Amino acid sequence: MNGYDLAGYLLFAFVTSITPGPNNYLLFAYGKTFGFKNSGRLMTGIFLGFFTILCLAGYGIGGLVSGNQTFGLILKIVSSAWLLYLAVILSRPIVESRNSDSHKIGFMQAFGLQFVNPKAWIMALGGAAAYMPQLGNIHLSVFAFAITFGIAGVPCMLGWIAFGDVLSGLLKSESANRIVGLTLFVLMLVSIVMIWL
Length: 197
Known about the structure:
Blueprint: H1 3-18, H2 22-34, H3 40-58, H4 61-66, H5 69-91, H6 107-113, H7 118-131, H8 138-170, H9 174-196
């Protein structure tokens, strides 16, 4: 990957990572509900899950999987159900302490979400098709591709969590929290609809 390709790839990774999608809505809701400090396991699960998807795309396995119509339908159904569940849980106003574990999403849930996240697959397959480096060793090429994309996405994840955390500090009333919760719920529903278009 020469300097120009790396610059274009980083821009692609940043733009696709910062734009709204299931992960970013989840990060925003988590930051709003539990705060910035409690998001470590969620971020780690998302990072490593997406890193795995990127590796699969780099090795060409992702293309085989995404080309299977039956798998594609299963992916849509599972991701829609999972996103609807998250929309319901994370749009509710949380009145108890931010340290409560009742609605927290753990590492494995965040990791597993990546495999049914259509945006993650599209980003990974598109990135691999356009920006996969040719370093002479397939394993090194895949690792460079995946880790570069993953690292470019970290500031985006931090930004969405921080946005939710800051917003929760500004919205003290229950009615304001309900409005944000409803807005988040609608955005998640829009994400589900987009899966089927």
